[in-house]
Design goal:
Shape: globular
Bound molecules: ligand C2E, magnesium ion
Protein name: EAL domain-containing protein
Number of strands: 9
Helix content: 40-55%
Strand order of the largest sheet: 1-2-4-5-6-7-8-9
Organism: Catenovulum sediminis
Largest sheet: 8 strands, mixed, barrel
Distance between the termini: 72 Å
Order of helices and strands: HEEEHHEHHEHEHEHHEHEH
Strand content: 15-25%
Length: 282
């Protein structure tokens, strides 16, 4: 009986697995279609300078406007893009679209924004990456300086050494790098100091518990103090309330990003965006 039960469990497991594999396969072929049919789009989340209270930049965030399922978040499909190798053409599309939107903002009088783009490990290993970025910049007549590349701490830990030369070259050409989701990857600032990185983005899991967990507050405090004394610019992600803003300002954190200031917006809505005064009280 136990044996039969075991077998049933196994068959059930196998059916589940097949269903899962089938779903992944379907999704993957849908992703090919998505690229061809232009179902991807970008939203932009403002980054706010905590000193001036102004929007200093935006982060481009990928969305999939699925014809039946509606808007799909990147956590659901970026891993599949990475597995299937589609991340390279999609990543190229992201760069092109973001620069096009940047040009659109400029033509409407919005200048000096910093445009942050998220990079996957495969893009960091792509020998054509510099060429791809440069030709997109040339197409929209934009300088390398307007682009900031976000790489997660996790990616940096695994691929940092191999990507060092590419990053060095890109920095020489004028782009900036930031470490995304900092604090989740168990790396040390001492290790990261070897990489050509200007900015540290503290992961929102630490920001979330400001005013809730003393331990998280201590971590945030320590990371900001250390990062700043090593010369990094510090960004806090996932800022949702005024308590967090107060705390971060007291620590001289440079930039904040989160739902308190704005959810990710369309390129058009970025033009209209104004920091609400009540989000940064005197
Ligand atoms: P990320 O780069 O850390 O982006 C920040 C994520 O936090 C975004 O989720 C954003 O919507 C969300 N967020 C911002 N403020 C708040 C807040 O106050 N509270 C909460 N709860 N969440 C907030 P999103 O857009 O779903 O993106 C998830 C991840 O997908 C990104 O994390 C990034 O790693 C990846 N991703 C997005 N776009 C791209 C892309 O073009 N290429 C690659 N390779 N990865 C991308
Ligand atoms: Mg990011
Ligand atoms: Mg992040
Ligand atoms: Mg994140």
């Amino acid at each position: 009986r136990a044996k039969a039960q075991g077998r049933n469990a196994f068959m059930f497991y196998q059916q589940e697995m097949n269903a899962h594999a089938f779903e992944l396969l379907t999704l993957e072929s849908e992703l090919h279609r998505a690229l061809q049919q232009q179902e991807f789009c970008l939203q932009y989340q403002p980054k706010i300078c905590l000193r001036t209270g102004k929007m200093t930049g935006v982060e481009a965030l990928l969305r999939w406007q699925h014809p039946e399922k509606g808007m799909i978040a990147p956590d659901k499909f970026v891993p599949l893009l990475e597995e299937s190798g589609l991340i390279l053409p999609v990543g190229q599309w992201v760069i092109e679209q973001a620069l096009k939107d940047y040009r659109f903002w400029q033509s409407h009088g919005l200048f000096n924004l910093n445009l942050a783009i998220n990079l996957s490990p495969a893009q960091l290993k792509d020998l054509k990456f510099i060429e791809t970025l440069q030709s997109a910049l040339a197409k929209y007549k934009l300088p390398m300086q307007c682009v900031e590349l976000e790489i997660t701490e996790h990616t940096m830990m695994i691929h940092g050494e191999n990507s060092f030369l590419l990053m060095e070259q890109l920095r020489q050409l004028g782009t900036h790098f930031s470490i995304d989701d900092f604090g989740t990857g168990y790396s040390s600032l001492a290790y990261l100091k070897k990489l050509p990185v200007e900015t540290i983005k503290i992961d929102r899991s630490f920001i979330r518990d400001i005013g809730v967990e003393v331990e998280d507050e201590i971590i945030v405090k320590t990371v900001i103090a250390m990062a700043k004394s090593l010369g990094y610019q510090v960004v806090a992600e996932g800022v949702e309330n005024l308590k967090q803003v107060d705390f971060l300002r007291a620590l001289d954190c440079d930039v904040a990003q989160g739902f308190l200031f704005s959810r990710p917006l369309s390129a058009l809505d970025i033009l209209q965006y104004q920091v609400q005064p009540e989000t940064l009280p005197h």
